[in-house]
Amino acid sequence: MNFAETVLDYSVNIALVILSISFLLTIIRIVRGPTLPDRILGLDMLVAAAIGFIAAIGIKTGFILYIDIAIALGLVGFLATVAFARFVLSRGKTEDDILREVRTAAEDARKKANEERKRIEKARRQEERLNR
Amino acid sequence: MISDVIMLLTAAFVLIGSFFALVASIGLLRLPDLYSRMHAASKAGTMGSGLLLIALAVHAADAGVFARALAGVVFFLLTAPISAHLLAKAAYSVGYRLGPNAVRDEMADHTPAERD
């Protein structure tokens, strides 16, 4: 094993480690990502890192066929991102909007329940008075 | 000797490409809001995967593989801005706003047109 082969071997291994760290950081963003578009962006980045990973594995093992898999993965990733963007557009509201809707709905329900309780209480009292 | 040069070139491409991928993911984690994270993911991320594909092509040293790798890189370079732009446009028109320390919102007077 001469010098160049050793250098290539080491650098591919280092690259695999770096790409794994990159995967992990992207996954942290996907898990934490406060909004849906952040997570979609994270998935897009994950596809890009996976393509790089596949290429590095291809260099390490010497299987050239991996390049077709990488291209196919890129195609799928692009289509997924476009579909998710359309989904964000067709959902039409942000997480804050959804939270606000839920809060107002809960507030309304609470008010209605209070009124109902008061009405029942009043009716019961009236009935007691009539009985007496 | 020529194969040694090819191997060293491949090693350089692999290291630079993975470094770009790392920078992209650090940017994705550290930048403050969606629109600035998009810069990291769609520029540095594409650069990283493209460089790694080129490294694979250089390592194979074959015309067919080189053409396929080049086609893949061109495809990524074409599609990454399109998907980032689509996502940014969808997110902005739905109502996701810029981060708290953004200086200027050029789209502010273009009120979301297609909100339904």
TrEMBL record, chain A:
Keywords: Cell membrane, Membrane, Transmembrane, Transmembrane helix, Transport. It comes from the Bacteria. Its main location: membrane. Coiled coil: none annotated. The chain crosses the membrane at residues 12-31, 40-59, 65-89. One of its GO terms (cellular component) is plasma membrane. It is a multi-pass membrane protein. This is Cation:proton antiporter. It comes from Pseudohoeflea suaedae.
From TrEMBL, chain B:
One of its GO terms (molecular function) is sodium:proton antiporter activity. The keyword GTP-binding does not apply. Keywords: Membrane, Transmembrane, Transmembrane helix. InterPro entries: PhaG_MnhG_YufB. The chain crosses the membrane at residues 6-29, 41-60, 66-88. The keyword Transmembrane helix applies. PANTHER family: ANTIPORTER SUBUNIT MNHG2-RELATED. This is Monovalent cation/H(+) antiporter subunit G. It comes from Pseudohoeflea suaedae. The lineage of its organism: Bacteria, Pseudomonadati, Pseudomonadota, Alphaproteobacteria, Hyphomicrobiales.
